[in-house]
């Protein structure tokens, strides 16, 4: 066969594959509410809906279409995005609307059979594995060793990576926006100060921060409230930054941090106030009684405990495609529960609940700012942690922003006290919390 014939044959085959791809995409996207575009591996592009497309769904590998025909799974789409087999150009938040679309798409037997016949005729290539490990090796045992590995998996990625998109304080938890126009830096300062005010922190009081991260809260509490603050973390890289910060800010007389599991805090040491911010999600639901009992042991009678963390609108941590994505790529041993169950566990441990505040929309705003900053630093982020991990964080945080906005997940600050102290541990009203 001549070279010209071979070229013509290849061209005809490619044209046939394109027709198959377009037909599959049009069927899979039938009924999509909105305006979008899709582009196939050979630059053939189509638009759906009325008006300018909010985003373009780019299929880089025909085998993705075969997999979508067999199993229209959000996890499959996430895996394909992380591996670079698909891309989303334009509004990523609009593209996340494909998840409910594919979940609701119903095909009759004839349509499904026709799509499968078309999909099996598509070519494919051997895709390279993403340049990151995943969390499928974790078994949710929450041993001390396993918890250290899980924390290292997420937090020890790169301090410089987090610096690209966090605020100046390096706070990796929900900010508090006193006004929509607050910058991320201001909103995180608002949050740190709100925690200290809720704890009614006084000069000389001993504060324990469980899961202190890069040291923002312990330093804030010492510098602005005169507290004697101690932080614990399981992240070696966070510990290094926290210690550097304490030395740089001249707070060594008031602030200490150490690498320690909360379960290993020594007997006989008692604190006036305890804060846990974005930490109890890593404890494991079966371990929450141990967590609450440990805080109760460490807190003086009448002392205040602020527990700040993500909750969900369903009981327990059932295995779904969403929870599997989080445990595989983001937080290997994380688990969430309803806020009512979190409160009940605290009460069973001997705490009195004084205040519960939901900050759901604040976290949605925080996440959108994080995503914007991460996208702006895409080249630097990919250089630091690899393209695949950049895609994990971008997709995860954008999807979480949408879930907070929809109410599927929330975040609550629960203020409680250990029973038995003299007098009432908080003021009669909340007016002191809202001073400017």
General description of the model:
With 436 residues, this protein is of the alpha/beta class. It folds into 2 domains: 3-120, 2-Layer Sandwich (Nonspecific Lipid-transfer Protein, Chain A); 144-434, Rossmann fold (3-Layer(aba) Sandwich), CATH 3.40.50. Helices cover 46% and strands 17% of the residues. It has helices at 3-28, 63-70, 74-82, 92-95, 98-104, 109-120, 144-155, 159-165, 184-198, 216-225, 236-248, 288-298, 321-330, 339-348, 360-376, 378-385, 387-406; strands at 36-39, 45-48, 55-59, 86-90, 206-210, 228-233, 255-259, 271-277, 299-312, 351-358, 409-418. The strands form 2 sheets. Strands 7-6-5-8-9-11-10 form a 7-stranded mixed beta sheet, with helices on both faces. A 4-stranded mixed beta sheet has the order 2-1-3-4. Helix 11 links the parallel strand 6 and strand 7. The N and C termini lie far apart (83 Å).
């Amino acid at each position: 066969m001549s070279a010209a014939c071979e070229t013509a044959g290849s061209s005809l085959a490619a044209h046939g594959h394109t027709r198959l791809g377009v037909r599959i995409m049009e069927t899979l996207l039938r009924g999509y509410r909105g305006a979008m575009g899709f582009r196939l591996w050979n630059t053939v592009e189509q638009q759906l809906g009325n008006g300018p497309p909010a985003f373009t769904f780019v299929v880089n590998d025909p085998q993705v279409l075969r997999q979508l025909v067999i199993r229209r799974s959000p996890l499959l789409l996430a895996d394909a995005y992380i591996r670079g087999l698909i891309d989303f150009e334009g509004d990523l938040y609009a593209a996340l609307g494909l998840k409910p679309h594919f979940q609701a798409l119903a095909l009759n037997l004839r349509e499904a059979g026709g799509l499968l016949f078309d999909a099996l005729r598509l070519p494919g290539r051997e895709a390279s594995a993403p340049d990151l490990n995943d969390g499928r090796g974790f078994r949710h045992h929450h041993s001390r060793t396993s918890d250290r590995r899980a924390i290292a998996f997420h937090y020890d990625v790169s301090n410089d990576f987090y610096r690209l998109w966090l605020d100046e304080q390096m706070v990796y938890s929900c900010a508090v926006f006193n006004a929509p126009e607050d910058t991320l830096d201001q909103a995180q300062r608002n949050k740190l100060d709100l925690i200290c005010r809720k704890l009614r922190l006084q000069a000389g009081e001993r504060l324990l921060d469980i899961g202190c991260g890069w040291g923002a809260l312990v330093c804030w509490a010492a510098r602005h409230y005169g507290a004697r603050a101690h932080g614990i973390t399981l992240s070696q890289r966070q510990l290094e930054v926290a210690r550097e910060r304490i030395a740089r800010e001249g707070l060594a007389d008031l602030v200490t941090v150490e690498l320690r599991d909360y379960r290993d805090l020594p007997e006989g040491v008692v604190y006036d106030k305890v804060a846990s911010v974005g930490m109890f999600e890593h404890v494991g639901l079966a371990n929450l009684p141990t967590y609450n009992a440990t805080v109760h042991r460490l807190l003086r009678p009448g002392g205040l405990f602020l527990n700040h963390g993500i909750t969900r609108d369903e009981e327990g941590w059932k295995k779904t495609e969403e929870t599997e994505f989080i445990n595989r790529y983001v937080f290997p041993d994380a688990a969430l529960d309803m806020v009512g169950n979190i409160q009940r566990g605290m009460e069973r441990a001997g705490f009195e609940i004084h205040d519960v505040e939901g900050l759901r929309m604040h976290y949605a705003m925080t996440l959108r700012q994080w995503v914007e900053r991460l996208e702006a630093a895409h080249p630097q982020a990919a250089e630091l942690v690899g393209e695949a991990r950049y895609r994990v964080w971008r997709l995860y945080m954008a999807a979480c922003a949408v879930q907070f906005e929809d109410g599927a997940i929330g975040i609550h600050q629960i203020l409680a006290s250990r029973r038995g102290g003299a007098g009432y541990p908080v003021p009669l009203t909340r007016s002191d919390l809202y001073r400017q």
